[in-house]
Amino acid sequence: MAQQIIFFEKNKADLSKSNVSITASQGSTYVDYMRNRSNRTAWITTGSVDADNTYIEIDFADAVTLTDIILLKHNFKAYTIQYWTGLAYTDFSTAISETSNSDVNKHHNFDSVITTKIKLTITGTMVADDDKYLYQFIATDRIGQLESWAIVKSKLSRNRQKSTMLSGKMSIREKIGAFSGTASVKIVSSDADLTIIEKLFESNSGFLYWACGGDETQYRTERKGYRMEDIYLVKCVNEWQADWYKGLYQTGMKVDLKLQEVID
Q: Which of 247, 246, 257, 264 lies closest to 198 in space, CA to CA?
């Protein structure tokens, strides 16, 4: 079923959060790679087998609110994720306990909890006894999902710098690049959507933008910017214009979100 855009708060385990500490039973050298917002680097084990029951414990230091956990680009067939109550680890309202997972990107949504720690335990990989890997681990609080259908455009800029050589040939240098995009809705009449949009414009910090809304099957093909793995920390670069469509107070509002990937 097609899903509209979902917005989340910044990853509670993001690498920029210096008070977060991580304990891993294996591959501890690489744990920060799963929280650096990159699909190019990953946490990975060496010489691990399924029977090891490899675990990763994330201590947020302070109490955080969570509603969603997203695992991007991983090879876990069987795993559990639980949160700390102050006395013991326990299941979320919708228990995260996979035994036959085959999705390399996995989204878990549950009733809101306040906690200081969560624990991921991996008991099986898609190919038995493979080393485990995980590119992105996102634990966050949902801002909201749009009900309105938006016209979405994504731009992945490589920041190309061009210079012409004496020979007449051109030298082109690229950087890793950054995401920018727009989400436009001609008429937003949903009170819930307008509340989400106002919160985004008022935000003083970056928020996560997930164009596919957790469902990339709604697209004809899987393209960059619209895949499950394409989640970006962004902010609004335009100003909020609260204009009623055609000046009629009962018609709803025209909304244009212009988003740019940010450092923080």
A: 257
**Alpha-carbon torsion, ordered 57, 61, 64, 67, to 10 deg:** -10
Which one, of 84, 81, 80, lies nearest residue 64 by Cα? 84
Count of domains observed in the chain: 2
| Buried b or exposed e, range 155-167, using 16+ CB within 10 angstroms | eeeeeeeeeeeee
Q: Last residue of some domain: 78, 110, 141? A: 141
* Amino acid letter for position 87: L
DSSP state of 191: H
Coil, strand, or helix at residue 161?
Answer: strand
The chain-wide mean pLDDT, for the chain, equals 94
Please tell me the predicted confidence (pLDDT) of residue 96: 98
CA distance 89 to 79: 14
C-alpha separations of 94 from 34, 36, 59, 80 in Å: 24, 27, 21, 12
Domain that holds residue 155: 145-261
Task: Give the span between the Cα atoms of 243 and 167, in whole angstroms.
Answer: 54
pTM: 0.93
State whether residue 115 is helix, strand or coil: strand
What burial class does residue 172 get, using C-beta atoms within 10 Å of its C-beta: 0-12 exposed, 13-18 middle, 19+ buried? exposed
The H-or-E segment that residue 198 falls in is: helix 191-202
1 is a domain residue? no
Rounded CA separation 243/26 (Å): 54
pLDDT for 172 beyond 70: no
Give a yes or no: residue 169 inside a domain.
Answer: yes
Euclidean distance between the first and the last CA atom of the chain, given in angstroms as a whole number: 32
- Show Cβ contacts of residue 143 under 8 Å, excluding neighbours closer than 6 positions: 7, 8, 9, 196, 199, 200, 207
Kindly state whether residue 19 falls inside one of the protein's structural domains: yes
